[in-house]
Structures are given as C-alpha cells and as structure tokens.
Amino acid sequence: MGGGNEASIQKSFKEISNMGERIHLTRNIIMRAQHLFKSVSNSKALRGRSSDDIIASCVYIACRQEGVPRSFKEICAASKVNKREIGRCFKLIVRSLEMNIEAVNSDDFIARFCSRLSLSDSIKKLAKHITNRSIELDLVPGRSPISIAATSICIAVGVFGKTPTFKEVCECTGCSESTIRQLLRFIMPYLKEIIPPDINCSGIIENMKC
C-alpha cells in the first residue's frame, strides 16, 4: 500500500470520495470509509496490499456499518477491483482491526432494489414478507441475501401482475436468471404458506414475466 504518508492517504481519500459519488453514497459513509482506510494504513497490517483493494474494501465495510450494504458486485463495478480481492481484503481488515461486522440480510437490499425498479410500497412490503417467511420455513438455506431478495421481488411482482421482467430484476440486483429460477423452484411449492391469506396469488404463474 506504500508508506502510508499523508499525501498517499489524501490521494486515497479522494478516490474514496469519487467511488462514493459513483454509487451515490452519503457523506457519512464516505467519511467512515476514509477513517477506516486511515486506521488500516496506520496499523500497517495490510502492508503490501494494493491501495485499490483496500479502498474498495473500506467502502464495502463502511456501507455495512451504516446499515446500507452494497453487494460485492456493486463495489466491483464502482472500483474495478476483483470480487475475490475485495473479499480477501475485507476479511483481513476485519481480523486485523478486530471489528465486529453484523451480517447482512435480504431486507437490507429489498428497499433499495424496489426503489431502483420503481416498484410500489405494496410490492416492497410483500417482498419483505416473502423473504422473512422463506427464511422462517428454511426454504432457502445457505443462499445469499441478495439472491433471496431478488427472488422475493420477482414473486411479489408476479402476485401483483406488474413489471419488471426477470431480466430487469437480474440487471438491477446483479443476480443471474438461473439463480432466481432455482430459488423459485424451492419456494413456489410453498406459496400459500408464504403469501398472506388476504392476497390472491392464484394467477402468479401467468403474471410472472419470463
């Protein structure tokens, strides 16, 4: 990462700000990422690691700490850093600074994805309900929060007979269509158990846009 001198740190701070602007992060998140970067630099625990890797990982961690997590794919797109390197660097930072990072859950992503897809509050509320019930019934063990969120949104959209298409959900969430379809095979047989009884879901198969 270099000598960690002030000029180098200020240059990295600027890159963190630029990355934050690219993915529309708040000033608080940017400042938290900058503070974290300086802590990592001062600790010298990641000496030899690329500054770009550390910057991307600090932004990823700051987003999670502020309760607005971004996926590895989103950070990769904003930073051009390999997903594997961000993951490795993330673990090194957490371990070296003895940080306690709360696990992300699907609800953290649903509101943002629904907003980007211009979906109604009713669809957002139903998607969250589907996610929580699917987890309670252990229908999606070991699956990533993002893939569960994406699948729940697809089901909620199908219930209400609205757009977007699978393709649009995939583009928004970064999930592959095959991943969503695989999760649908696990969840759909239990549809009546995860959809509130006051919502008619009889036409969901016809409504879902493939």
What does this molecule look like?
This protein is mostly helical and 210 residues long. The protein folds into two domains: 96 residues, Cyclin-like (Cyclin A, domain 1), CATH 1.10.472.10; 103 residues, Cyclin-like (Cyclin A, domain 1), CATH 1.10.472. It is 67% helix and 0% strand. The longest helix has 17 residues.
How far do the termini sit from each other? 46 Å
What is the element string, with H for helices and E for strands?
HHHHHHHHHHHH
Number of helices: 12
Name of the CATH class of the largest domain: Mainly Alpha
Q: CATH superfamily of the largest domain, called what?
A: Cyclin-like
Report the sheet with the most strands, covering strand number, pairing sense and barrel closure.
none
Helicity, as a percent range? 55-70%
Assembly context of the chains = single chain
What percentage of the residues does DSSP assign to strands (E)?
A: under 5%
What best-fitting shape do the alpha-carbon axes yield? elongated
CATH topology of the largest domain: Cyclin A, domain 1
* Rg result: 19 Å
Task: Kindly give the count of domains.
Answer: 2
Spans with pLDDT under 50 lasting ≥5 residues?
none
The averaged pLDDT comes out at 88
CATH architecture of the largest domain: Orthogonal Bundle
What is the structure about, briefly put?
By secondary structure, this protein is mainly alpha-helical.
